[in-house]
Design a protein that fits this description.
Elements (H helix, E strand, L loop, with lengths): L2 H26 L2 H20 L9 H20 L11 H8 L8 H11 L3 H11 L4 H8 L3 H25 L2
Length: 173
């Protein structure tokens, strides 16, 4: 494939899937500028790796998620960011993550995204893929873990979330 054809193919796929990059950046970066920088860094790494992309081995979306999550997690490690470096997810973040403006943010939805923001990097990636309605097999392929491990981790995250929501409801928070 010529350089021009490869660039055009990448640009078409990028336009179709750039929302995924924005979602990953929204979940893994702090502040609007950091999110833009991370999204740009993911885009650069995707372009650099694109020549090696083989559509027979993985769907583009799966391949993109794998690279985006790896870049995001590397970004966290490089910046020393985890829970203490993140600002709480607010309505603006929810708009970015959902890809469209939220009419009236539901308190439970805000609590869900605050919960997700407090997860470690792997579980945050897992739940992001789960909320995208990715199959356990696809999540396992992206994250490099077994489908059984995916199911177990999702169930544990759901139990933690249920516990938090129950405790919050009991205290009226």
């Amino acid at each position: 494939m010529s350089g021009k054809a490869q660039r055009q193919r990448f640009e078409a796929l990028w336009r179709q899937h750039q929302g995924v990059v924005l979602k990953v950046a929204s979940v893994y970066a702090r502040g609007a500028e950091d999110r833009r920088d991370l999204a740009q860094e993911i885009g650069v790494q995707l372009w650099r790796a694109f020549a090696a992309y083989d559509e027979r081995r993985a769907k583009f979306g799966t391949w993109l998620y794998r690279i985006a999550l790896n870049v995001a997690i590397s970004h966290l490690r490089r910046t020393g960011g985890e829970a203490g470096r993140f600002e709480p997810l607010d309505e603006g973040h929810l708009d970015t993550i959902a890809g469209e403006p939220a009419a009236e943010p539901d308190e439970r939805l805000a609590a869900l995204y605050a919960f997700i923001g407090g997860l470690d990097a792997l579980n945050r990636a897992l739940i992001l893929l789960y909320l995208e309605d990715r199959s356990h097999a696809e999540i396992a392929e992206v994250l490099g873990i077994s489908t059984t491990n995916v199911a177990t981790k999702i169930n544990r995250i759901k139990q933690r979330l249920r516990g938090q929501m129950t405790a919050a409801a009991a205290t009226g928070a």
